[in-house]
Amino acid sequence: MASEDELNLLVIVMDVNPIWWGQQAQRDMSESTECLDAVMVMGNSHMAMTTTNRLAVISSHFQDSHFLYPCKNWTGGDGAWDGTMDEAPYCGDGKYELLSVANNVVAEEMKRVMSTTEMKGNSTDTLLAGSLAKALCCILLQKIVTFFSAGQEMKSRILVIKTAEDCARQYMNFMNVIFAAQKQNILIDACVLDSDSGLLQQACDITGGLYLKIPQKIALAQYLLWVFLPDLEQRPQLVLPPPVHVDYRAACFCHRNLIEIGYVCSVCLSIFCNFSPICTTCETAFKIQLPQMMKSKKKKLKQSI
Amino acid sequence: MAVYVKDLIRISHNWVDTHTCDVTTRGWILRLLINITASVVYPPLDDSCPSTTMASLSEEVLLVLKKVRQRKQDGTLYLMAERIAWGPEGKDRFTVSHLYSDIRCQKISPDGKAKIQLQLVLHTGESSTFHFSNDSSALTDREAAKDLLQQLLPKFKKKANKELEEKNRMLQEDPVLFQLYKDLVVSQVISAEEFWANRMSTTNTENTLSDKKQDVGISAAFLADIRPQTDGCNGLRYNLTPDIIESIFRTYPAVQQKYGENVPHNLTEKEFWTRFFQSHYFHRDRISTGALDIFSECAKQDEKGNVTHLELYRYIRSGVLNVLTAEGLPKEKKIGGKPASTSNPNRTGKENSNSAIIKRFNHHSAMILAAGSRRGDAPNDQASETSSTDGNSRDSDLFQPPIKKVWWSIDYLDLQREDGPKTVALNLKKSDRYAHGPVPLESQKYTTSQDIINSITCIRHEMANYVPNLAQVLTSSAVSSAIAALSPGGVLMQTGTQQAINQMVPSEVQGELKHLYIAAGELLRHFWTCFPVNSPFLEEKVVKMRSNLERFQMTKLRPFQEKVQRQYLSANITGHLEEMLQTAYNKLHAWQTRRMMRKI
Predict the structure, then answer these.
(1) Which one, out of A4, A301, B144, B326, has a CA that is 20 to 30 A from the CA of B252?
(2) ∠ at Cα B270 (B269, B271), nearest 5°?
(3) Is the ipTM above a cut-off of 0.90?
(4) Domain BSD spans what residues (chain B) (predicted)?
(5) pLDDT tens for residues B294-321?
(6) What is the pLDDT of residues B141-174, one digit of tens each?
(7) Whole-number Å distance between alpha carbons of A229 and A225
């Protein structure tokens, strides 16, 4: 059991790529808003578990990453974290005020984000690596603040709800974020709605979180509550979906195919699927005696930790 | 032919007995005879056969002793190159024959006893006793036998024991090897020779390296250790052991030279040493007394070792001299200090004697060090011109041409250009390739720009009218299907059961499996190294290995498999081992069929 004094911060990083959501909305009108509802239910449940639980929600867009909650723009004052506020908008259903405030803020901010969406550049990829980096910064800041003000330890984890596909250009940043999270003992969980994401599988494997691909979106809230609500200490006592077998194969530099056995240049360590006498990355010429005796490296599939 | 030779030997024995009494002569003549007979081919001596014909000897006989009784029977004792044997009188067979390597030790009866005996104790614990009953020469015979055995036994003992010791040590040091030995040899899957055949070759090279011993150096206090004792009447008595004499000769070759010149022509050894100790050469203050002292020349030679003016000039000319620290320069004038030249007449007598002692002391230490390093060069020393007396190794360098000496003196290792390994410079042309993740370059989905605009508009429209409705976010049917998927056995829980095999098998079974793998690996290694089969030895070995593998499968693998199946689980954890063995069998079968086809 988590001690009473321990703070738990859950950061939900939600992928709100409008293109994907728009395509989904064109097929089925109600799903997109329901997903947002499900995320809010998850956030409320987390905050309702103990009073020391905290929540942050970040929206991940192709333009930017934005903190939906807690938010500076909200006019209710600075007390977003601990629930004290000057004027609470009356919700009408007797809910714990923190929860209603959170919901309202998230809804407002979401609307604002969507209304200010513009297609400026060419990129339609979600800036997930950036959002994760922001989440890490938020966690770190909170850790320092609580440590120095209240002397308490803070445990935190990140829940990523992913919709669109992986962006290959963010790979380096993504890996850096993952390793930073691992160093700080921050879990990264992933709930994937549409297509499998290799990067998130790696992230969950490395940091010790859970990866789940959901078969249907309408029961998203149930999946979130069942799998992602328990925190790290409680998970070993529950029967949760087993870890996924992660594909750690490297991609060759020429075609970006995932390969198990390939050729590695000994100078620049670039990976190729076919032998060529000159490395195209560093332009080293390889001296070989026989065609069979080429440098080859066997890539083993890494065991899940 | 054999009969004739036997008779010849018997006759010659009798002749030798009657005509010679010297043991060595007897032995020599017999050896000659045996060698003659050995030129005819005889079967080699077989130890397992209890009685061996004398005529079938092919070894050298070192000593023959007659009238040696064994078990109350008269006979002759033969000591040969590798064995000791005894044959009864009149017969030409050896009834007792022991290899020297089998003999653990020899014992002799005490001197006072009437019976003069020699007992040989073997490694197995058995013993044979020989009673020397020759009236005149029993004691000398026994002593001769004992001495010869004393020389020979250690040689053979070392060989036999060393191997066993080595094997034991290897088994003790490596528990995996020990286990392997237990699995394979103790259970008789393969024989001990095969097991050790591969391993002993690696250890022999190590042994030869450790045999090199270090030479013993000279103690620096050897002269002081002589410790003269007062004789009672105002004399001194010096005890000189051969060790001390050797040390003196090694350190001071000049003394050795004098010794060689004077002893034994002019002086006896005693006189030489007396003079040595009396001479002022030996004493602390070397003030030269006169030309009568044969050791004054040694003193002069020693002085030569110190740098003289002549040599100083030589140094200067060669350009090697370090001017700041030079001593004894005629024009020297050290800045701010007294000149340190020993030729300064202003020094007091005491200073002179002090410096003389110190010089002597340093010289003595230098000679000792030089003696240690001179060991390898000793024969060359006599030939070199001036360097034989002072052990100064720099002497040899002085005879090099000057320019070479200059180069030699300014050549420092640090100043040389570093010749590191050749490296290739990294020159990346397309470094953005590294940043690309393991994601296919072309995304599968392609969206047109019109699609994009449509999507954005649609979602914007929808979100504008968004009101959170949290109470109706789930329907019960959706929830129940989700719960079903997440329960054990559900859609999302499928991969959990496959990973538990290593938890289902207990650790002892895993340990046994490991041992099986190690043993099988060893056997398979022997098997596969036989290919390609080039020699008849390898052919035999291959077939033998196949039978070994089969035996291993029968005795070890099958019972293990059955045990596992009976007790624990139906998982096939020995499948891979079976596969490896089957591959080996297939290979052998293929090879055999190919061989038969070739023969046909």
Answers:
(1) B326
(2) 90
(3) no
(4) 152-207, 232-284
(5) 666 666 666 665 544 455 555 555 555 5
(6) 888 888 888 888 777 766 666 777 777 887 888 8
(7) 5
